[in-house]
Amino acid sequence: MGFAISNEDVARFHKSGIIQIDFGFDLSLLDEIIDAVEPLYPLAVERGAPHAGRLQDAWCEIEGCRRLATDQRVLDVLQVLFDRRPLPYQTLNFPYPTSQPVNTDTIHFATDPAGYHAAVWVALEDITEDNGALVYYPGTHERPELSMLDLGLRPTYDDYPAYEAKLAEFIESEGLKPERCCLKKGEALIWDAKLFHGGPAGTDPSRSRHSQVTHYTFEGCKYYTPLTSGPVYRSYRFPQWIPSEPTEPRPFGTEKPLSIPQRIVRKLTMYRYRAGDLLRSLRG
Q1: CA 86, 91, 96, 100 torsion-angle sign
Q2: Using CA atoms, how far apart are residues 94 and 34, in angstroms rounded to an integer?
Q3: Which of 68, 73, 139, 228 is most deeply buried (CB count within 10 A of its CB)?
Q4: 83 backbone φψ class: left, alpha, beta (φ>0; ψ -120 to 50)
Q5: Angle of helix 72-82 relative to helix 7-16, nearest 10 degrees?
Q6: pLDDT per residue over 93-118, tens digit each?
Q7: What CA–CA distance (Å, rounded) separates 120 from 84?
Q8: pLDDT for res 4
Q9: 50 pLDDT above the threshold of 90
Q10: Share of the chain above pLDDT 70, in %
């Protein structure tokens, strides 16, 4: 094990659903990432992003983003926390606060067996109350997950704004108290995907808040999107894993084309998973 954390840190993570760690990242790498991604944010909209405030899968094009996502120290810690080999599959880069309402990652990404999904958020610069410190609700990862159907909503992206509103109502009704987490440049947060969290606007609109989030699932898990899954149907996904070694750069957000045999295997696997869902629903 190259990078280790204490038993106390492991216990703290499982109790609160989040942990703050300084992995000792090379700060020059973080500067390199900022310089490389900044010119690409305006292009994100042209490539289909809803706004220029985020850059998905920049690792495809920017070597620094890939290196940060696959850093062995991060993988070592995730292995300890989840007792499975972590598999990075998506990066998100942000130039400023997202002003994102409280949500859970598991409405977007979930696994079967459940509970094997995590996010690692790295501060590429100091993050304070001024430029949007993360808000989270400790311990909420232990609560039962709230699906779209649980909240009386349709499993469709059209109802996602209503999901955010319903979750806010639930938090208020339960009297849950938030905490904020400020980070020094290079520090990271690891959180359980079930944790309630959000990205509030900072108090200083002139401040940037450069950061990179990498999402990880784990070996031996099926992967699907609860947001668009129904009671007898799951929207299975087959992510492209971020490689541990450099690859030929290509425009961010694009997948390497699958070969014909790979496409056939993917389709057959999807049908097998869906058939299994149907059989389980009939038995239950």
Answers
A1: negative
A2: 9
A3: 68
A4: left
A5: 70
A6: 999 888 889 999 999 999 999 999 99
A7: 16
A8: 85
A9: no
A10: 84
For the beta carbon of residue 263, count every other beta carbon within 10 angstroms. Answer: 11
User: So what's the pLDDT on residue 97?
Assistant: 86
User: CA-CA distance, 91 to 30, in Å (whole number)?
Assistant: 14
CA–CA gap between residue 135 and residue 199 (Å, rounded): 6
57-61, 217-221, 258-262: which has the minimum mean pLDDT? 258-262
- Extract the tokens encoding 92: 């998100």
Which helix (H) or strand (E) element contains residue 10? helix 7-16
3-state secondary structure of 279: helix
CB 61 within 8 A of CB 227: no
Please give the model's pTM, rounded to 2 decimal places. Answer: 0.87
Q: Which amino acid is at 177?
A: K
Single-letter amino acid, residue 274:
R
Strands (E), the chain: 18-22, 55-56, 86-94, 100-103, 110-112, 117-123, 134-137, 179-181, 187-192, 196-199, 211-218, 222-230, 233-236
Q: Indicate the residue type of 43.
A: L
Quote the tokens at residue 62.
């920017």
pLDDT at 263 over 90: no
- Give me the phi and psi of 43, to 5 degrees please: -75, -20
Residue 59 token pair: 């690792």
Out of 9-23, 233-247, 261-275, which region has the weakest mean confidence (pLDDT)?
261-275
